[in-house]
Amino acid sequence: MFGFGKKNETKKYGLTGDDDVITTIRKALESNDMKYQYSDDYKMFTVPIQGDDLPIMMNMVVQDAAIHFVCPLALKAEPNNFEKVAWELNGINKTLPFGAFFLDPDEGLISFEYGYIFVETKMSQEFVLSMMKHMVKTVDQHDGDLKKLAEEVSKIPDAMYG
Prior knowledge:
Layout: H1 9-13, H2 18-31, E1 37-39, E2 44-50, E3 55-63, E4 66-76, H3 82-93, E5 100-103, E6 109-117, H4 125-141, H5 143-150, E7 154-155
Antiparallel strand pairs: 1-2, 2-3, 3-4, 4-6, 4-7, 5-6
Helix pairs in contact: 2-4
């Protein structure tokens, strides 16, 4: 029987821990010849992916038995447009089956994010690749709406893609 909240439950039941997930993500990326950077300090993978017509940067942060998938977009809202941009993003979000577009109220940056808790699961390479695919697909599907929104916000120059 599971004793929820007990320490060392991961080891006792052979469940996935942060280090296992980091290894799984690394293997998934390398087995598909995907270029990435990894930060030990933040337990974060950064992967450049080419979408349909937008380059998409994906960060995967492994923290507290969760993977945080984050696609920061090259868009920045100005403070005087925050309310309008937030409403537009909310309109997109209500159509999504998972994840959400966010507006950072401090910086005005826009991102697409999804968090997956893996505390009681075995993580697979296939799952990681599937989530990455769905993240990119969702950003690509809303590319038109985001481009319209970009007309009202500043486009951030992309150091990697220009």
